[in-house]
Specification:
This protein is α/β, with parallel strands linked by helices. It has two domains: 213 residues, Aspartate Aminotransferase, domain 1, CATH 3.90.1150.10; 242 residues, Aspartate Aminotransferase, domain 2. A hairpin with a 2-residue loop joins strand 13 and strand 14. The longest helix is centred in the N-terminal third of the chain and has 24 residues. It is globular and about 70 Å long. The termini are far apart. The structure holds 4'-deoxy-4'-aminopyridoxal-5'-phosphate (PMP). 4'-deoxy-4'-aminopyridoxal-5'-phosphate binds next to helix 6.
Length: 506
């Protein structure tokens, strides 16, 4: 639906409320809006695929949006910390994005041009190359792909296979690269034919039980040994693909030193390194591209989501000596989305000129600190982690047996609590806050707010989230357990979700 008028930004203290004024006709309008909203949702569940995802957990019918705020057809407003799964670096309908789109529309430029050159595309490439890590920018080629992130991943895998003449790929546990078959093969959950899976380092659920630098070192050694052991069962691959911060995998930032080790290991063995920056790019993690934290220059970068300024756009950027493709080796009808290129160029420039990556770093650090303090009161917040404005809270069952005793840093990794995470998401929604879930067990509550979020809005997000966690934790602890009379009061000690300061002191 067209956005006919701007939605005023949500006031930080405002809740998700109907916006119409009180009165008989206003009440009538409200009832009408609610039934239109319910009708649309009913028809959606009757007509759309069972593979629907976000729509199942978020029964919202967005009709207007601006910045952090979405307004539903029923008049309710929400603070959107999902941001189109991390796509909206500038939030919804940012003025610079709208202006860039209008300019193209008003100019009479063609909207569909296959892969022909246009002034709009030329400007997009210039702005994109301006932001690339030095070292790649000087020798870069760009391939416009089909419109989604997964298309760019496919293109990247195909490119390194063509360039090396080798079929295999190295990928990591917990990875997510998309839903088409090659991308899916490289993602952590899928059984694979041509992909060898290596351990991605993580502190909270370290596969080696140690976490920290030691855990990352062991993960790197395993990678080396798989590549160098002639009997490892893994042949020299065409490339290694990694996310500098795993997003869908549960918001797990790779340590910078480990990233440098992966660069060294792949460079020493002439294996192209592919950085999947579909979710981490354009300032999200506190650097323009997340590889910049470690100083690693990948051979190939896969970019999508924010580079289209909220419209569909995906590219692979790679070192020119990998450009071995025959003409037409990777084609597709929809590679020339002029509106997306204009919106994307405006977004990239705005993030660069306004140093929004630095802003994401500072605000993200503040949010992490506040959430970690909150976790002291809620043992069900097992781990709080992230980088920049890519933040995750792993919800756990604190009464469950920890997976390992030697976790880093001395934090027991209790079993994941996906039901609790889902309850937190529901309680957030009731309070007018949209959050995402992720992680191996769907037990991680994720925040991906726009980089333009103000301090006041961030405080409002934290308030609603804290309230939602408290409410969900209370409900979770009072839930009936297997073999337990569901009407019985919980035994003493079962309501310790909130370790009050007085109780701690006592
Ligand atoms: N790579 C990463 C790191 C992603 O997070 C995603 C999407 N969440 C993809 C690839 C796939 O992108 P798309 O959904 O646009 O195909």
């Amino acid at each position: 639906m067209a956005v006919t008028e701007p939605v005023p930004e949500e006031t930080p203290s405002g809740c998700a409320t109907a916006t119409s004024p009180v009165g008989a006709s206003a009440a009538g309008r409200q009832t009408g809006a609610r039934s239109a909203h319910e009708g649309i949702l009913r028809r959606q569940s009757a007509r759309e695929s069972a593979a629907r995802t976000y729509a199942r957990a978020l029964p919202i019918v967005p009709v207007r949006a601006r910045g952090l705020t979405i307004e539903g057809a029923d008049g309710r407003r929400y603070l959107d910390c999902l941001s189109g799964a991390g796509t909206l670096a500038l939030g919804h309908n940012h003025p610079v994005v709208l202006e860039a789109i209008r300019k193209v529309l008003d100019s009479g430029a063609p909207l569909h041009v296959l892969d022909l050159a246009t002034p709009v595309k030329d400007a997009f490439i210039t702005e994109l190359f301006r932001t690339l890590p030095p070292g790649l920018a000087e020798h870069a080629r760009v391939q416009f792909c089909g419109p989604a992130g997964t298309d760019a991943v496919e293109a990247a895998l195909k490119l390194v296979r063509a360039a090396t003449g080798r079929p295999g790929v190295l990928a990591f546990t917990g990875a997510y690269h998309g839903m088409t078959s090659g991308s899916l093969e490289a993602s952590g959950g899928a059984p694979d034919v041509r992909v060898a899976r290596l351990p991605y380092p993580q502190d909270y659920r370290c596969p080696f039980g140690v976490g920290g630098e030691r855990g990352a070192e062991l993960a790197a050694r395993w990678t080396e040994s798989v590549l160098d052991d002639p009997k490892s069962g893994v042949r020299r691959p065409a490339g290694m693909i990694l996310e500098p911060v795993q997003g869908e995998g549960g918001v797990i930032p790779a340590p910078d030193a480990w990233m440098r080790r992966m660069r060294q290991i792949t460079a020493d063995r002439s294996i192209p390194l592919i950085a999947d920056e579909v979710q981490t790019g354009v300032g999200r993690t506190g650097a323009f591209w997340a590889v910049e934290h470690s100083g690693v220059i990948p051979d190939v970068m896969v970019l999508s989501k924010a580079i289209g300024g909220s419209l569909t756009l995906a590219v692979v950027v790679y070192r020119d000596d990998l450009d071995v493709w025959e003409p037409g080796a990777h084609a597709g009808t929809f590679r020339g989305n002029q509106l997306a290129m204009a919106a994307g160029a405006a977004t990239l420039a705005h993030v660069r000129e306004n140093r929004l990556a630095e802003r994401a770093a500072a605000l993200g650090a503040h949010l992490l600190e506040r959430l970690r303090r909150l976790a002291e009161d809620f043992p069900c917040m097992g781990d709080v982690r992230g980088r920049g404005l890519m933040i995750g809270i792993e919800m756990v069952d604190p009464e469950g047996e920890p997976a390992t005793e030697t976790c880093f840093p001395a934090r027991a990794a209790h079993p994941a609590a996906p039901e609790l995470a889902a309850a937190v998401r529901r309680e957030c929604l009731r309070r007018g806050l949209i959050v995402e879930l992720g992680g191996r067990h769907a037990g991680v509550v994720r925040l991906l707010p726009p980089l333009t979020i103000t301090d006041e809005q961030a405080a409002a997000v934290l308030d609603r989230l804290a309230d939602a966690i408290e409410s969900a934790a209370r409900g979770h602890e009072n839930r009936p357990r297997d073999g337990e009379d569901k009407w019985r009061k919980p035994p003493p000690g079962r309501n310790r979700h909130r370790r009050g300061r007085a109780e701690q002191a006592g």
